[in-house]
Amino acid sequence: MAKLKLDLHDIYNKGDKIDTELKRVMQEAIDKKIAMVEIIPGKGSGALKKKVLRFLDQKHVRAMYHRVEKDDKNFGRIFVHFRH
Question: What is the pTM of this model?
C-alpha cells in the first residue's frame, strides 16, 4: 500500500507552515491516489496533535478523506485514509 509521510517535528512552532504542509500532503494524496497519509506531530504536550486533528475536522478538509485513525501504539502518529 502506497502512503505519504509528513513529519511535523521541524516546523512544530510555525503555525502557518503547518497548515500549508497539511494542505499540500492532502492534495498530493488525492492527486496521486495514495491510500494513506501518515502525519507525525510527535508526542510532546499533545498541542500539535490537537492542531492537526482540528485541521482534519474542518468540513472542507473532511470531504477529502475517508477516515482518521489515531495510532493506539504510538501517541505521536495519525493516519489519514483515503478512498479513490
Answer: 0.91
Alpha carbons 31 and 4: distance in angstroms, whole number: 12
Structural domain range at position 54: 3-81
The kind and range of the H/E element at 70 are strand 67-70
Q: How many domains does the chain have?
A: 1
**Residue 22's CATH number:** 3.30.1370.110
pLDDT (tens, 9 = 90+) of the chain, 84 residues, equals 689 999 998 888 887 899 999 999 999 999 999 999 999 998 888 899 999 999 999 999 999 999 999 998 999 999 999 998
Q: Provide the phi-psi class of 52: left if phi over 0, else alpha when psi is between -120 and 50, else beta.
A: alpha
H helix intervals, 1-84? 15-31, 47-56, 59-62
